[in-house]
Design goal:
Elements lengths: L16 H4 L3 H4 L22 E3 L15 H14 L3 H13 L5 H11 L5 H18 L1 E3 L1 H17 L3 H14 L4 H14 L2 H14 L4 H13 L3 H8 L8 H13 L3 H9 L7 H16 L4 H20 L4
Antiparallel strand pairs: 1-2
Helix pairs in contact: 3-4, 4-5, 5-6, 5-7, 6-7, 7-8, 7-9, 8-9, 9-10, 9-11, 10-11, 11-12, 12-13, 13-14, 14-15, 15-16
Length: 321
């Protein structure tokens, strides 16, 4: 989820400097990861039903209430539905250690634990779920496939495993061609690899599907900015709300400086930071504009500008502004 964006983007690990900024929205942890259509909260178990390959029999009902495993699963789901993911994940973990989780329940556990675990732990857990599902001989529903493939893709993307992550998001899109989370993620990966035209097609399609997801808008705008089209980036980023989406407004101000409109950039920055700090931010942006003109990648300069503004805000908060 959906969780709001952090104030400023974070650097993406193990990626080229020019491409790194294009992964920022997905690295929130995907994440933030991620986009809301991929259910930032864990999916209900109702979305994870499968049919057996052997005879198409329906999944067996849970054991009676005197079964400890059934009671544990009931508790885990109750905590999940209350948004208490850490507690729910702890119960699922105990059930897994006891061998009490069926393959789909292991996938359920992975989706619940994803927001609170490291990408490496998520990759391991979703990997265990995939192996268990393959060994069980069941056919996943499209919803379960999306949960599995997006979970793997999100973790691999955060770890810088771009090629494998691309395959995972392709897996999602094969099951659901209009999955906004996968379209967004694949667009970011394509942009980072230099395929800007195809990236923008996917990102634009994702934005059409869900105009309320401003993280997709941010990625689309950054793609245009990295390609030298500051005017289009400004047009897109101008749609963002300064209070709810300060990261996008920061990117807008940077694009305005690149376009030479420092007056507009000043007004934009005043909406997200103390007016006394704006001249320092603008001076830093101007220096970075010159570096870009001298050949520096737009992405790395934007990340550096974000860090500088964050430092200014931290100094102000600590009373040293």
């Amino acid at each position: 989820m959906n969780a709001t964006l952090p104030l400023f983007p974070l650097p993406a690990a193990r990626l080229g400097r020019a491409g790194a900024v294009l992964l920022l929205a997905l690295m929130l942890s995907a994440c933030s990861t991620f986009t809301k259509t991929d259910s930032a909260s864990a999916p209900s178990s109702r979305n994870l039903l499968t049919q057996s390959n052997a005879g198409g029999a329906s999944p067996r009902p849970l054991a009676s209430s005197d079964d400890p495993a059934a009671e544990g699963l009931k508790l885990a789901r109750l905590l999940r539905d209350q948004g208490r993911y850490e507690g729910a994940a702890g119960v699922y973990a105990q059930l897994e250690q006891r061998g009490s989780l069926k393959p789909l329940e292991l996938l359920e556990y992975a989706s619940v634990a994803a927001p609170i675990q490291s990408p490496r732990d998520n990759l391991a857990l979703f990997g265990r779920a995939r192996r268990a599902l393959n060994e069980s001989g069941v056919t996943l529903t499209p919803a379960a496939t999306v949960t599995l493939c997006n979970g793997l893709g999100r973790a691999r993307m955060a770890l810088g495993q771009r090629d494998a992550a691309m395959q995972d998001f392709d897996c999602t899109l094969a099951a659901d061609a209009n999955n906004v989370a996968a379209l967004n993620a694949k667009g970011v990966l394509l942009d980072a690899s230099g395929d800007h035209e195809q990236a923008r097609k996917l990102l634009a399609h994702a934005w059409e599907l869900d105009p309320s997801d401003f993280r997709v808008l941010n990625n689309l705008a950054l793609s245009h900015l990295a390609g030298g089209d500051a005017q289009e980036a400004i047009r897109l980023l101008s749609q963002a709300d300064a209070v709810q989406l300060p990261t996008l407004k920061l990117n807008l101000a940077f694009a305005q400086v690149l376009q030479g409109d420092e007056s507009a950039a000043r007004k934009t920055l005043e909406g997200i930071m103390a007016p006394a700090l704006v001249p320092q931010a603008l001076a830093d942006f101007a220096q970075r504009r010159q570096r870009i003109r001298d050949g520096a990648p737009v992405g790395s300069e934007l990340m550096a500008a974000s860090r500088h503004v964050l430092q200014l805000r931290e100094k102000e908060a600590n009373g040293h502004g």
